[in-house]
What we know:
Blueprint: E1 5-13, H1 22-44, H2 49-61, E2 82-88, E3 94-100, H3 106-116, E4 121-123, H4 124-133, H5 141-144, H6 147-156, E5 172-173, E6 176-181, E7 187-193, E8 214-216, E9 221-227, H7 229-234, H8 237-248, H9 252-266, E10 271-277, E11 282-283, E12 290-296, E13 301-304
Parallel strand pairs: 3-4
Antiparallel strand pairs: 1-5, 1-6, 1-12, 2-3, 2-7, 6-7, 8-9, 9-10, 10-11, 12-13
The structure holds aspartic acid (ASP).
Amino acid sequence: MKLPALAIHGGSGTITFGTKDSELKQQYLNALNVTLEAGFEALAKGQSATECVCKAVKNLEDCELFNAGKGSVFTAKGTHEMDAAIMDGKTLKAGAVAGLRGVKNPVLVAYDVLQNTPFVMISGEEAIEYARHREFKFAPDSYFFTRLRNDQWQEIKGDGKMQLDHSGEGAKFGTVGAVAVDTDGNVAAATSTGGMTNKAWGRVGDSPLIGAGTYANNRTCAISCTGHGEHFIRGVVAHDVSCRMEYGGETLEQASNKVIHESLKRVGGEGGLIAVDSSGNICMPFNTEGMYRGMKNKTQTITRII
Ligand code: ASP
């Protein structure tokens, strides 16, 4: 029996660590490991997949190494605007938020939308008002500030370009996500991001869009994506994987690989995804140089960058 199982990601892209960066590399791997261990332990004790992915993503939001929550990238206005989504594969209920500012954990608000409203997605000023009304934790701009993201923004600020959260020698996408299947065979997915550096005009990427960056359905799988959001939106990537399984009879592995290495690549889309099906199979394909990722089930624990 492969249940339960958990997979997480911390973004994909050109991930190059020099010999001097071994400590930083270890920090990334540790952050992934801590989240995997805590999440799997909770799953093994009977926690639902939906609860588990929410907590795993919250952990990653609290870690400034990733572009979500603390450590989110800068917008063109020098602010941090965060998006998140969560979906329960058993009920097909979903909750999402876009353009949140000052909220410490956007994924918690997304989960609250799923549980306590008739809506799927809320955005902007009124979503911030909702988070206040529901008494979620807020933090000043200084909490979200990191030197790395600020340097990335300073490089392109003012030239009107939008950039993935690391660039220069190539793009990196530091979005975080989790997918899980619990002991009852229910699947769930959650994704959270600061989006793209220097984004403007309320730009929203794929992460909070159900079917694009996040999707879960017990009949097929749970998916969380990372990459150049516009391509993932146009390709409705997460739902495409699910449809290939449901209507085309493909396995999780076939469907995930075809979408990332064929459909997405054809339109120049860079990125990756993590996926789990209700039998506990896990797949983590990416078409970039690397993807911060990890998976854990009863017999295996894996964390990788390249
Ligand atoms: N997909 C995210 C976005 O386009 C970026 C990322 O994955 O880092 O907003």
